[in-house]
Amino acid sequence: VQLQASGGGLVQAGGFLRLSCTASGSIFRINAMGWYRQAPGKQRELVAAITSSGTNYADSVKGRFTISRDNAKNTVYLQMNSLKPEDTGVYYCNADINSWTANSEMEAGYYWGQGTQVTVSS
After folding, report:
1. Strand 17-24 vs strand 45-51: parallel, antiparallel, or unpaired?
2. 83 exposure class (CB count in 10 Å sphere: 0-12, 13-18, 19+)
3. Dihedral over alpha carbons 101, 33, 43, 87 (to 10 degrees)
4. What is the sign, positive or negative, of the torsion defined by CA atoms of 28, 106, 101, 77?
5. DSSP class of 62
6. Is 2 exposed, middle or buried (0-12, 13-18, 19+ CB in 10 A)?
7. pLDDT, tens digit, for every residue of 81-106?
8. Which of 20, 73, 82, 98 allows an S-S link to 29, with CB 3.0 to 4.6 Å?
9. How far, in Å, CA of 49 to CA of 56, rounded?
10. Pick from 77, 71, 72: nearest CA to 20
11. Could you give the dihedral angle defined by the CA atoms of residues 70, 36, 55 and 23, in that order, rounded to the nearest 10 degrees?
């Protein structure tokens, strides 16, 4: 299983970006997908997550960011509006996936994308 993220970039404060992350491989079921970010000198933190039950957001992004998912495409999106300089960091997608092994057995795993840089200038 692999996760491929895209959509980062440089934007002015108040602007917007949309991140995408697509999972590929021998996927049986995606249980949850989410976005984390890591600012320089800080720990990685959860930004938003989505499951079949609903969504969850960090307090700092509520009302500005929206996470959504296209199950047919195994893709999760993060629409980021009203961006602030403190949103700057490397954004990583994460997924909880049940997949098939080469022996046709099912295994559970947590997977990470490669990270995409988001920079918000003031």
Report:
1. unpaired
2. buried
3. 140
4. positive
5. T
6. exposed
7. 999 999 999 999 999 999 998 898 98
8. 98
9. 5
10. 77
11. 20
